[in-house]
Every structure is written in structure tokens, then in C-alpha cells.
Amino acid sequence: MARASYSEEQVTVTHHGDRLNGEPVTIAASTTRIASWLEDIATVDRIHHYLDAQLRNRTTDPGARSLRAMRLHNDEAQASILAAVRAGVTGDTGGGVPDATDAALEREVSEHASRWTHALARLIEHPGWFEHLCDALIATHRVVRVGPAKPCGRCGNDGERVVYTSLYPGVMDRVTVSCDPCGRTAHNPYGEPGPEVDVRLVARAGSAVLEVATLADPRAVAPTAMHLRFAPGDVEGGPVKPLPGKHFRLEPGGRSTTTMELPDAVGVGARLQVMCVSGFQVSTRSFALPGPAAIPRPRATMSRRRDARKVTAKRGTATTDSAVASVSSKA
Asked: pLDDT (tens digit, 9 = 90+) per residue, 112-141?
């Protein structure tokens, strides 16, 4: 990674809830990288406030432990950045942060961001917390612009693009994309398109499989952590046993294709939920899956082996069933 250049310009960044009690921090010889980190951490701090308020019980709620870990790593990253800022202000370096400090700080903040992301991934594995995260991303924002978006990749209806600006200085603006039938499908920091995610539902040997192709933004300055979660819909007879989520990392411009085999009971309103984190910047994708009638079912146990022999030559190809092929979606 190329080293960021430094400017002698005075930059003032306000961080709400930081260890300077919210007072403006004047940074001499600041870098755009440090300013970006401070903005990210200020944004994360507001996210934590909202998520904390969703806890039913701070001791027994299954999300409490993950939230504590998230706040710990965010606070430690913040402390490292502010220590470097003070060194730049008071040190005998001629007004600049030394190269060695720059590289060490980059590694340290990246490590805390990675651990924060893993804690967030564990949090959204609990039912309802992905939705809480999406709400938290705009909980302190107001709508400034509403406009059209490209037609929805799943249902073909017109999309809507909404731009939000934060009520708090130093917290990044957001953009959401949605359509009426499918709901909110994409959630990004303003000006950051995030990874491209293409989801296809295919039939393989009588089973329904989601193929998820991802492409990281080549302009990203840090790797992107991807977390995929299947959220079952409403099923008669009780809740569906959740599938384990999938977590992987993409370098800037990197590509990956992964698969998730759906359970026999999918339910009405099932979704594939995708979280993308680069540094401390969070994007989300949410894909509505078709109703149970449109999803291919595994055949009976006695006939499944015989059916598998019939499709061996075509294993891995997508189904041509129009009801299934029509659910392909891209964000």
C-alpha cells in the first residue's frame, strides 16, 4: 500500500464520544488517511449507541458479548490514532508523523478493524441483528434526496435511491437502494459503491443452491471482509434451523464465487443477507428469495441417488426452470 502524503494544513475533526470528551481535535500535518479513520470511528460510535439500545438485557442477550468486543476494538483503534495525532502535534518530527509510525499505525488500526468486523459478523448471526445494523447505519441521519434507481434485478420494478446526511458532524453520509416488493436491497457509505454482489438460485441434483459472485471495489484502500447469512422466512411448525454463515476476504478488485445449499424448509420471506466491511466502513446487501413453491425441492430419499446419476453430466449447471432462473439478482 502506498504511503499517504502529508499536508501542513490544519485540519479540525470532531469525534463524538472520544477520549477528548467530544472536543475538537486539531491535527497538525494530518493525512487524509487519519481523517478518514476518525470519520469512520465517529460513525461506528453512533452505530454502537443504536445497537446498545436494542439489547433486551445487557447480561443475557446473545448479542451483548459481540457488542462489547466491537466497542473494545473500536476504542483501541481510536486510542492508537489519537496517540499518533498527539505525536504529530507535540513531537520533534518537524510537524509530521514519522514513516515508521505511519506503517505501524496502519497495521495496528487494520488489526483492530479486522477484529471489530469478526465481532460484528458474530452479532448479525443472531436473528434480527442484521436488520438492527441496517437501521443503525442511518439512525442519526435525515433524508436529503430521493431519486430513481435502476430496476430491481429480482422483480424488475423501479428502484428508489435515497441519500441521507448525518445530524452529527464527522459521521459519514449514506445511500440506500430499495424497491417496494423486495424492500431495501443495498446500503452504502455515500460515494462508496462497495462490492458488486450477484446472486443466482440454481438447481443441482435436486437441491436448491445459491451461487454468490462477489467483486470488490478496485478503488478500496483496504481488503473487504464479506459475510453471507441465510435468513429463513416464516415456516409452519416452528423456526428453521439456521445455516452457518460464510465469511471470507477480498483484496481490492478481487473476485470470489461461493455457494450455499438451502435447507428443505425455506419459508415465506427468506432472504440472503450480505455484510461487506472495508476497514470500519460497512455496506450491506439483502436479496429476497422466492417463495417455497418456486424453489426446487430435493426428491425422496430412495430416488435421490437415481436422480443424481441422471444429471451427472450436467452437474454444476444452472437450471433452465423459468420460475427459478427469474430470481437472479444483482446489486
From this structure: 999 999 999 999 999 899 999 999 999 999
Beta bridge partners of 114: none
Residue spans of the domains in the chain: they are 11-126, 133-330
Q: Which amino acid is at 51?
A: L
pLDDT tens digits, 55-109: 877 777 888 999 999 999 999 998 988 887 777 643 444 444 455 457 788 888 9
Residues comprising the chain, all counted = 331
The neighbour count for residue 203, using CB atoms within 10 Å, is 20
Q: What global pTM score does this model have?
A: 0.77
